[in-house]
Amino acid sequence: MKSICLIGFMGSGKTTIGEAVAKKLDLTFLDTDSEIEKWREFDIPTIFETEGEGRFREYETQVLKKLPFQSAVIATGGGIIEKEENRKWLSEHFFVVYLQTSFDVIQQRLDGDEGRPLWNQELEKKEKLYKERKPKYIECADFILNIRKQSVSEVVDQIVSGIKQI
Ligand SMILES: Nc1ncnc2c1ncn2[C@@H]1O[C@H](COP(=O)(O)OP(=O)(O)OP(=O)(O)O)[C@@H](O)[C@H]1O
Ligand SMILES: O=C(O)C1=C[C@@H](O)[C@@H](O)[C@H](O)C1
Fold it and tell me: Which atom of ligand 2 is nearest to the CA of 116?
């Protein structure tokens, strides 16, 4: 089967949900952020600080292009949809699931989190980023899951039944 790529804003649950879906379907789990960290041997905040966001985005595209097209569940970085090239690649090669979560829920989840460089900025900038990105996630999604109060296991079940219908 086609690999499943989870897309969505920071904190929408891509890593948490992706690991659980992979376990349930007995597929390999991959995370583009972790792949970049393994390859570059630095964590993401350090890459942003020392090399800048532009270089990070280049690494992200290179990692994206090496992901397996079959039999994996992949959590992507929140900004993977920023480049048109990446959106095209995602829609052409994967079953893309958008975890659509409200800004308020994300704020509650990431309150006090310092591991995400683009979350460590003024509220207005984060809200703007959230609004700007939404149509880009929608553009490349095969399946949109509107997450409100569902638990992790409920979201996992929704994805698994969505996949069985394709
Ligand atoms: N459905 C859910 N209900 C409650 N909490 C959740 C749910 N999904 C994820 N979380 C929690 O939200 C936080 C962020 O989740 P996670 O790190 O998986 O998001 P992410 O989309 O991978 O973020 P990023 O793109 O920034 O790496 C975690 O603390 C996780 O436990
Ligand atoms: O939303 C973003 O642009 C990012 C999200 C994280 O997953 C990381 O990929 C990085 O912190 C950038």
Answer: 11
pLDDT of res. 82: 98
The per-residue pLDDT for range 77-116, each reduced to its tens digit, is 999 999 999 999 999 999 999 999 999 999 999 988 888 9
Q: Is 55 annotated as a binding residue?
A: no
Q: The tokens 């900038």 sit on which residue?
A: 125
Under a CB-based contact definition with an 8 Å cutoff, are residues 151 and 142 in contact? no
The count of structural domains within the chain is 1
Residues in a beta bridge with 7? 98
Predicted TM-score of the model (pTM): 0.97
Collapsing DSSP to helix, strand or coil, 160 comes out as helix
12 marked as binding residue: yes
Q: Is the beta carbon of 10 within 6 A of some atom in ligand 2?
A: yes
Cβ 16 under 6 angstroms from ligand 1: yes
CATH code of residue 100: 3.40.50.300
Residue of 7, 44, 80, 101 best suited for mutating to test ligand 2, as the one with most atoms within 8 Å of CB: 44
Instruction: State the complex-level ipTM.
Output: 0.97
129 C-beta closer than 6 A to ligand 1 = no
Q: Give pLDDT tens digits for 22-48.
A: 999 999 999 999 999 999 999 999 999
Range of the domain at 30: 4-157
Handedness of CA 115, 121, 127, 132 (dihedral sign): negative
